[in-house]
Write a structure and sequence with these properties.
- This protein is of the alpha/beta class and about 550 residues long.
- It contains 18 helices and 27 strands.
- The strands form 6 sheets. It has a 7-stranded mixed sheet, with helices on both faces. It has a 7-stranded antiparallel sheet with strand order 20-21-24-25-26-19-27.
- The longest helix has 15 residues.
- It is globular and about 70 Å long.
- The model has no long low-confidence stretch (mean pLDDT about 95).
- Bound molecules: 6-O-phosphono-alpha-D-glucopyranose and zinc ion.
- The site of 6-O-phosphono-alpha-D-glucopyranose has 14 residues, from loops.
- One of its GO terms (cellular component) is cytosol.
Length: about 550
Amino acid sequence: MIRTHATMPFDGQKPGTSGLRKKVRVFQQENYAENFIQSVFDVAERPAGSTLVIGGDGRFHNRTVIQAAIRMAAANGYARVLVGQGGILSTPAASHVIRKYGASGGLILSASHNPGGPDEDFGIKYNVANGGPAPEGVTEAIYQRTTTIDRWLDVDAPDVDLDTIGPTQVGGLAVEVIDSVADYAALMEELFDFPLIRRAVEQGLSMAFDAMHAVTGPYAHEILERRLGFAPGTVRNGVPLEDFGHHHPDPNLVHAKVLYDLMMDPEMAPALGAASDGDGDRNLIIGKGRFITPSDSLAMLAANAHLAPAYAGGLKGIARSMPTSAAADRVAEALGIPAFETPTGWKFFGNLLDAGMATICGEESAGTGSDHVREKDGLWAVLLWLNVLAATGKSVDQIAREHWARFGRNYYARHDYEGVDSAAAQGVMAGLEAELATLPGTAVGPLVVERAENFAYADPVDGSTSRNQGLIVAFSGGSRLVLRLSGTGTQGATIRLYLERFEPAGGNLDGDTATMLDDLVQAAEHLARIAALTGRTAPDVIT
Ligand code: G6P
Ligand code: ZN
């Protein structure tokens, strides 16, 4: 009953920052997805009797790959597959389900915030038993396997009815279609003070949540509207669509502009505006009249986390990715707990969380989360903000101002240059890297370079080292430029330039971000020569 299909390796099945992401058309080639999934099964640690979790963000091609993966899991000796109803599991929900049911791992089918549809993107990511993305050793082994693979296995069985909750059998494999939301919603009720938030809602706390026609719709309807009592209609674009309604499910100021405009309208804005991305791990937080950068959100949530039941006992540590602003470091210092600076990519937080060294983590790329799962978690961040708003009775703007008055403010922006010719982008990086050693002590306009380095990370838990994780030029006074190439793009190269200016408490804490960063923009052009080397005179996206 097990079928062996001959195949040949495909080039380029190397998982990036967050799994294998390609155009749908690439995944539709015969054997393409199967080769990758078989490579995962060939190298994954999965003792006899293992459970595999499968779910995705509902994008085009999701169901096709899920059906194939189930037949392959049956042939590859898994004992049980848990699959979200309709093939839906948000990334944080999948992480939770893996942990809760002791699965040996999970396949998450998503290209995160990239658009979906027949001509857009698809992705497959493998998460391991702790619920987090496979560490580099595992993704490298998967990749190596894709270069030699010559067969994949499945069983001859009909499609599973993904829309009906309950058990079914595929060959010797027990398949269970599970409620996509229930386990996750129950976890959120444990972490946060739902009765307190409910009372605040009754007393007028209002919000708008944009699910961007992506995976968080069902989660947000259940948690925000049904369990917390927010008015129907609070969740916008709440029905997951295969093409996200032709939108780009990326919760930033460009793609969530409608929400942003609402939040800047003094008459119409609710207390909190929030959005999440394709697979539900990212978040956007906007208060009435006040956008909160992801870096600031991390710092403010860390400073106020004790107001939520799960964190009332204090935090063990705070971790942020290197390009994320240093705002959270100052909170860690005030709390007397360690601050960690890791390379970009949520997987680098896994060891710190597993070892109990950090409780809260965050990234400038709109990811925030804690040790409750091993992924970043968009709705978790929204619920923690709601818990803080309900507990303090303050507005988002008030919380932000008080935070800056105490800790100082890290003005922050990221400039993205997308679809750049790869050689030109490499040239920008190589050009700056070659200068690094000469920079300390030199003046660039009004700024003086204090330190310049190519960031390397030594993991304090397993001792592994990750090099070439981005170029840092740090100036005296706490301002900084960071330059790195995106690991998630699907076309050409994306150059990311991160700009950060520290303004101490007592300084100009309510300035215009672009104005406050102007010296840094000039310095970046002088040092990195992006315009000269790529012909791009302005970034495509500023977040
Ligand atoms: C994914 C990962 C994040 C990471 C981001 C970086 O979303 O899950 O942890 O921060 O990629 O993307 P980039 O395009 O900057 O490499
Ligand atoms: Zn995502």
